[in-house]
């Protein structure tokens, strides 16, 4: 099943590599879920799953898909690829307290399909984006809502989330923001201190984890201390100005 919303930093390109090592699991969590591309592709956990993100608009979108799908489907079906709808969607998110949860969910969905690099602030007019919107409209069906059976959705700090839901039979998929960035969709930066705190938690984790991150000066020491396994995947990192090659690491403790 394809994820219904595009999100900056999503791991669609890594998903097949992650699925190759994905173990059976009773409980599944994503502390930094974003668009939750792996969640949509994999089979449901045996017991339950929990998604978490600190972006309130994103969490609202998932909750509406789960609990009020038909109302959202109506707005999605009536969407038009034009600048007026784009600016209206931006207005909704800027002043979201004046709009319903369904309107907010539609606005985020629409912007994610029509903006450059999913930054939600730059309208794009070309066939690729038009086709992306139409394909998403065509595939926006009840199966998306049904996928949320047995799924809880949280909106708390990621590190607190991991501690709260860590159990021996849990699998945690962790895709934190790139170091020193906010990915344009979150307040503040993801700093070295936060990354180290995350890695310290993983050293004493009860459950299994899969962590994705780019190569950096910190991670090698933790890999050695935790005796973690690593797969390196070459990737092209995109920005509004250029693209460059980088190695993304899939790190796991099983």
UniProtKB/TrEMBL annotation:
Protein name per the record: Uncharacterized protein
Lineage, top ranks: unclassified sequences, metagenomes, organismal metagenomes
Biological process per Gene Ontology, one example term: methylation
Gene3D superfamilies attached to this UniProt entry: Vaccinia Virus protein VP39
InterPro entries xref list: M_m6A_EcoRV, MeTrfase_D12, SAM-dependent_MTases_sf
Annotated PANTHER family: DNA ADENINE METHYLASE (PTHR30481), SITE-SPECIFIC DNA-METHYLTRANSFERASE (ADENINE-SPECIFIC) (PTHR30481:SF4)
A family per Pfam: MethyltransfD12
Molecular functions (GO terms): S-adenosyl-L-methionine binding; sequence-specific DNA binding; site-specific DNA-methyltransferase (adenine-specific) activity
Keywords associated with the record: Methyltransferase, S-adenosyl-L-methionine, Transferase
């Amino acid at each position: 099943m394809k994820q219904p919303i595009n999100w900056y930093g999503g791991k669609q390109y890594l998903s097949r590599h992650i699925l190759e090592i994905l173990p059976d699991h009773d409980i599944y969590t994503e502390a930094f879920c974003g668009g939750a591309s792996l969640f949509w592709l994999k089979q449901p956990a045996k017991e339950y799953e929990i998604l978490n993100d600190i972006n309130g608009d994103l969490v609202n979108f998932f909750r509406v898909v789960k609990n009020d799908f038909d109302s959202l489907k109506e707005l999605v079906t009536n969407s038009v690829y034009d600048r007026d709808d784009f600016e209206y969607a931006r207005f909704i998110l800027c002043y979201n307290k004046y709009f319903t949860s369904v309107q907010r969910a539609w606005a985020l969905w629409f912007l994610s399909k029509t903006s450059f690099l999913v930054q939600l602030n730059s309208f794009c007019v070309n066939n690729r984006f038009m086709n992306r919107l139409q394909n998403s409209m065509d595939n926006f069906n009840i199966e998306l809502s049904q996928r949320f059976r047995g799924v809880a959705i949280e909106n708390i700090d990621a590190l607190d989330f991991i501690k709260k839901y860590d159990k021996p039979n849990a699998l945690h998929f962790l895709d934190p923001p790139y170091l020193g960035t906010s990915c344009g969709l979150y307040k503040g930066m993801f700093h070295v201190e936060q990354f180290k705190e995350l890695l310290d938690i993983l050293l004493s984790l009860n459950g299994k984890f899969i962590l994705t991150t780019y190569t950096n000066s910190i991670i090698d020491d933790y890999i050695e201390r935790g005796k973690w396994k690593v797969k390196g995947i070459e990737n092209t990192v995109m920005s509004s100005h250029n693209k460059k090659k980088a190695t993304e690491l899939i790190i796991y403790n099983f």
